[in-house]
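Figure 2 data, in text form.
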Amino acid sequence: MDEPGDPPPERQPELPLPFPELTGDQPLLPARMINEFAYCPRLAYLEWVQGEWADSGDTVDGRRVHRRVDRQSGKPPAPDEAIETFHARSVELSSNRLGLIGKLDLLEDDGEGGVTPVDYKRGKRPHVSRGAYEPERIQLCVQGMLLEDHGYRCESGILYFAGSRERVHVEFDDELREATTRAITGLRSMADAGQIPPPLEDSPKCPRCSLVGICLPDEVNFLRRGENPPRPLSVQRDEALPLYVQSHSAKVARKGEELIISVKDEVVQKARIIDVSQLVLMGNVYVTSPTLTELMRREIPISWHSYGGWFIGHSQGVGHKNVELRTAQYAASFESWRCLQIAKSLVETKILNSRTLLRRNWRGDDEPRELLAQLRQDARSVRKAGSLQELLGIEGAAAARYFGVFGQLIKPDPDKQSFTFDFARRRRRPPPDPVNALLSYAYSVLGRSFTVALSAVGFDPYRGFYHQPRYGRPALALDMMEPFRPLIAESAVLSAINNGEVRPTDFITAADACNLTPDGRKRFLGTIERRLNQEITHPLFGYRVSYRRVLELQGRLLGRHLQGELDQLPGFTTR
């Protein structure tokens, strides 16, 4: 230990810059990203460049383990002071020379006039030759290099594994320093190149990765080469569901971890915030500012609808940071051939799914073979369309065939109070009859669901490829919902009618408009939500997944296509 008054320890020799000196507009890299890069370059790119994040049981447990060291305490001595016994938690350091910023869990003296960083890990110590895996050793070495850049002497560090309560000593030798420098250089170069690395192939790292449902490693590799069907990695069960509030003059407030819904100052319902995926407000509903602030902080969207159910818009926090995805979206939307390619995939899938719905729900004596053959031919004609206008004509002809017999899918009412469906009077605003009212409302819910899902993925839902931009119209959401109209919206309408979940008395007709009553709307929303939660076998990937998850999955596959990883957008068709 140096005596007071002795000269400070010699500063470590200057390391060569691992990359050119930072310019004023380049941010410092978080030190933890070096660990992610060493573990999986694609993971580091998704988190750092595209701003993706998702929690898993491991990440939540990791935050629990770090609770103590995340609370700042103690203070390290200045580099030019004699270093005595000390402990300092949550020490933040940055270096413009290295281009890094990081927070050290724990910093303590090494007993020989230097300092030792201690990095906490949630799991048990791995039984490997070097005591820890390479990414963990590199992350610790990064902390040592930051300390050295601030004038401290740092020759080693410690990894503390909370699961087994063991410490592993890591020496910062030349080999580890070189590997760390390569990782820093590689991450910066990868970020500057703007090209996402390819996914790992059949890697044991993927199943435990919290971003596996965003990265889609097996799915991307399968679609690119058609080999090795995906492991069911991207499927995660999300228990959170939309919370609908439609009572006139209702109030939504927050108390602790709950949302409190009251009408005329009387509490009518409570919901845990953790169980809410989005807040859906219909009509004159009041939300307190603290509630809006907390929901935005947690990135829980708030959807605003008219009392009749028409989607007006949604509020959210700062939104997704993936500017690369939106750049690719905008660039493709200005290329007519790309727009046509994507639109043809969506329309062909929609026609095939409409054909499937007719075949499954037909109530006549004989299967309409001629009609099914015509729809099959319409789907084939889509591939030959040379423009969006020609494609619109093909879609319109197929829709006329489909809706012309939609009434045949409705179960006859023995009381002679059956719904009627008059396609000649089909219109969106206002719907003239009960079935039109149900269809319009179901499309509104589906459009809102896709708007929220696409925003969460990082898209601008108002810039589409098939539907042309129009003020206030979520064109991309309308594009993406086309294949799912028959699978979700129209299927929910048939279920609600044929199962008696909505009845003729659940509608109000005034002048030439027909709308659901509040009670009828509540029951029909239950039908749609059940349909969204229904699990099916994915037609391409073969694993079980809910329709709600499929909406997000299709959005992410569109992103992979726009950013060049997939040659075309895969369609979603059921058999």
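Caption note: The two ends are 76 Å apart (CA to CA).
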